[in-house]
Amino acid sequence: MRNQNRALEFPTTRRDSASGYTLHGRWFDDPYAWMEQLDAPETQAWIAAQEAVTHAVLRAVPGRDALRAAVARSARYARRSPPIHAGPNGREFLWQADASDDKLKFMFRRDKDAPLETVLDPNTWASNEALVFAVPSPDGTRVAFGKAVGSTHAAVIHVLDVETGRLLPDRPRGTSHTSVAWRPDASGFFYAACPEPGEVPAGDEAHWNAIYEHRLGSGTPARRVFGDDREKEYWCSVKVSECGRFAVLYKWDYVHANVVYLLRLADDALVPAAPAMRSLNQVQVIGDSLLIHTDLDAPRGRLCVAPLTAPTEWRTLIPENSDTLQTVTGVGGRLYAVYSHAASHRVRIHAEDGSYLRDLVLPARGSVNRNEGEGIVSGISGTWSGNEVWVNFMSYVQAPSVYRYDYATDRLSPYHIPDVGLDASEYVTDQVWYESLDGTRVSMFIVHRKDLPRDGRQPVRLNGYGGFNISLEPRFTALHAAWLKLGGVLAFANVRGGGEYGRAWHEAACKTRRQNAFDDYIAAARWLVSAGYTTPTRLASRGNSNGGLLVAVAALQAPEAFGAVYCRAPTLDMLRFPNFGFMSSAVVEYGSPEDPVEGAYLAGYSPYHNIRADRRYPVMTFVSALNDRVAPPHDPLKMVARLQAEGTQGGPYFLLPLRDSGHGGGTTLTALIEQDVDELSFYCWALDVAPPRKSEA
Q1: With contact defined as beta carbons under 8 Å apart, do 80 and 93 qualify?
Q2: Which residues belong to any copy of the Peptidase S9A N-terminal domain (predicted)?
Q3: What is the pTM of this model?
Q4: At 5, is the pLDDT very low, low, confident or very high (cuts 50, 70, 90)?
Q5: Which of 242, 314, 432, 674 lies 20 to 30 A from 514 at CA?
Q6: Minimal CA–CA distance to 327: which of 308, 355, 346, 351?
Q7: How many helices (H) and strands (E) does the chain have?
Q8: Which among 628, 617, 626 is positioned nearest to 541, based on CA atoms?
Q9: Is 53 helix (H, G, I), strand (E, B) or coil?
Q10: Could you report the per-residue pLDDT of 484-528, keeping only the tens digit for each?
Q11: How far, in Å, CA of 166 to CA of 455, rounded?
Q12: Do the beta carbons of residue 631 and residue 545 sit within 8 Å?
């Protein structure tokens, strides 16, 4: 298919040979530093010219309309969340979307038999405005919701009167609002935010995150309740206990450790629960006890209990075992423990005293929990005093679904299973183990049609992440479904740096051990070839965010192992990343360029600094979310410019800019579908995969 395209003509790029800096006695040239000024006319013109070349290729791929139809069939499905009970007479709220909706709506019903009514419908907003969160007050009369523009970051809290549909004049202080938790009497709420402009030195606007309390209608600025006055990189989150007596306050050192305090709401006393920043902890108040899920002295996690009268005197309730304990949720008087068992989820039910009762058998190999800004969020929900147990579940071939679990009958009943046009029975999810360069055994999921011929010629898309304690677990996406319908194979390598196998697995690829993640990923690509699935020319490597760094390094270090690379929203200049927004916090993961040892290590693999003219690199697409607030949006620009100038034996190298998308994707389903179509078009073009006819989509 690549031969069907005319010779590609990329725009001329200005190279500033004098641009650079000295670090630890070594000169590093930075000829494309001028691109860091994204709004400059020269940068904008260059982006537009690169975009024109990329679109000329992707939009000429035969069968693109059929690809769009295939993605849309698996992306546009009805969505529904478990109910959120708030207020008297059975009033409940929920998230819902029809297949035709571009954005999720927030709904409510006045009682259990009443029809659904719309509270917030962001489909009526501007296309670039997103409803990021919505939290009803305990009495069900108000909703605090976050609206963001251009992405799902930098949300601003607004308060809606449910009965009248009118916005209250309240405007909580600060920026980038998250983590709303109401006071039990609905008089106000706690939330996390960064300071107002001018409250901190220039350049620190993304730091000094703290917990504030806003009182409705008070007219006075929200008071700062909890935070840190010395470490600007810490960030915070908050919950209010089911009993209504405490606000549970978290302060995080990125994803590596946190401290937890209880704010006693009766007298505003601050009570330490996990005061030392040396482990990851999640806390739940049950009766007169505190449940603490921690990896302190237990790299794979354990559950402890402490009396509220002595909340730091922990006693182990569920000990560490060979699986990784991700979350524990108290529901209906029992403890639901979700484990990562070889990178997919297993649920075990325990009594209040920690004794094992039974497993909750899931529909298939898949995922229950999810990763969010507040760490790992349990997919088991309900209240300690209630009897409803809700279970979220998905797999590579089943879209996010909701089940009810009845403990008395040990029955898991479907509540909402979407129709995405994919027959799960036609596919198989295998798990294999392979050896990395140093002999470490690494797991990998492989998803394909049951009748797949093992002829060594199948198109394979390999994914990885390998960082920040984030696990690569079974997840459904419309892109996955469309690739499977094309006859493609999906592979997901659980490389070191992730959280699949506990703290030790994560730390095995932190700082000056990060090469382990790259070695694991390269070994996965080579195993797929040796096992007869594919050839290097039919293997696409795909990574997002930290996964983008992973696939870029792997392609530079082992270019012969990959046929194509799709690198989305990455960090690629590892000597300059701390200069971008909140990324200075990531030195706890990557190491610091200012440290002589860590800086030299970073320079040794930093993609922007390790392009070699004598290597034939695979065809690559670098995707930049131009309004990205998480990763530097200029890094893909600089990388493409340098590859086009210096990596001339390989390629070609494309830039695909995204506008009003943010780090995680577009603000509308239509935008997300179009991004998926571009990605699939790239694979078809690069790997010579024939798209289906529209009637087959």
Answers
A1: no
A2: 11-416
A3: 0.96
A4: very low
A5: 432
A6: 346
A7: 10, 40
A8: 617
A9: helix
A10: 999 999 999 999 999 999 999 999 999 999 999 999 999 999 999
A11: 62
A12: yes
